[in-house]
């Protein structure tokens, strides 16, 4: 990416140039806190028949700087790697496959070389500190446990635990590769048209140092539910005003327009607002 765009990203994130592993960790934590993992841009691309965002890191960064919109894993992976490589870090792309029977879902994350090993910088499943890609490695984020485990047959599994009042849901990926490059990533952006996050509704997530914060529609579409999850429990707040709801996640007013164009928000006669809910699994 152009130097001025890299400098804008570093300035907005409020970190110093990452010239060592400590700086890489600072940048990663700031990214997870401020650049949301979300469905909104992909939803608009799918509706308009365009390739989902991710292959062009400069486009991802310019969009975040002007609207506050983030994106799905592919965009985060390419943009974070591009910023880090501007300061001399050696980056690759990690690829996971979600182990679910009913769907095919590929997931990516940035890999930073650390000597002969690699560190995972996963914005979707924030680990607090960068996560060593080795059996037994565990993240440090107090509200979102993640880690790598050996499946007993020589394969690494990438696991996360969603902590909530109702359930503690374990998700498991099979780690397929840690050596993908930019061309591979662009290929999987094409694959993501059909597989992966469907982006049929608003979903947004980011991580502070102590909490995982997410935003999603209520089951009846009447509001967006803002959730704060910490090691001590969770709180929820229902927000019916889309500008207010998206502002809580750091979005500018342009993000509401994108969500409207993508069909994720509908303004109805009489001033009512409808948020497309998550499909019922059956």
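Q: What amino acid sequence fits the structure above?
A:
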């Amino acid at each position: 990416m152009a130097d001025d765009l890299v400098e804008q990203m570093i300035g907005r994130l409020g970190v110093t140039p990452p010239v060592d592993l400590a700086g890489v960790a600072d940048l990663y934590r700031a990214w997870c806190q401020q650049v949301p993992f979300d469905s909104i841009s992909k939803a608009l691309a799918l509706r308009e028949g365009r390739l989902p965002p991710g292959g062009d890191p400069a486009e991802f960064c310019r969009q975040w700087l002007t609207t506050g919109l983030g994106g799905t894993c592919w965009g985060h992976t390419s943009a974070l790697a591009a910023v880090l490589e501007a300061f001399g870090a050696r980056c690759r792309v990690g690829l996971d496959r979600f182990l679910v029977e009913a769907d095919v879902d590929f997931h990516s994350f940035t890999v930073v070389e650390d000597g002969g090993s690699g560190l995972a910088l996963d914005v979707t499943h924030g680990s607090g500190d960068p996560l060593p890609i080795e059996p037994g490695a565990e993240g440090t984020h107090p509200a979102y446990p993640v880690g790598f485990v050996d499946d007993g047959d020589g394969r690494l599994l990438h696991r996360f635990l969603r902590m909530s009042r109702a359930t503690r849901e374990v998700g498991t990926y099979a780690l397929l590769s840690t050596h993908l490059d930019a061309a591979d990533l662009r290929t999987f952006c094409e694959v993501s048209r059909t597989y992966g996050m469907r982006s049929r509704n608003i979903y947004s997530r980011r991580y502070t140092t102590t909490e995982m914060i997410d935003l999603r529609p209520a089951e009846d579409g009447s509001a967006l539910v803002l959730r704060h999850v910490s090691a001590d429990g969770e709180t929820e707040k229902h927000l019916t005003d889309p500008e207010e709801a998206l502002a809580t996640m750091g979005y500018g007013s342009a993000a509401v327009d994108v969500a409207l164009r993508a069909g994720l928000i509908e303004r109805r006669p009489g001033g009512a607002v409808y948020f497309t809910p998550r499909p019922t699994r059956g």
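Q: And what stands out in the fold?
A: Helices lie at 3-13, 21-34, 40-48, 57-67, 73-85, 182-191, 242-247, 253-261.
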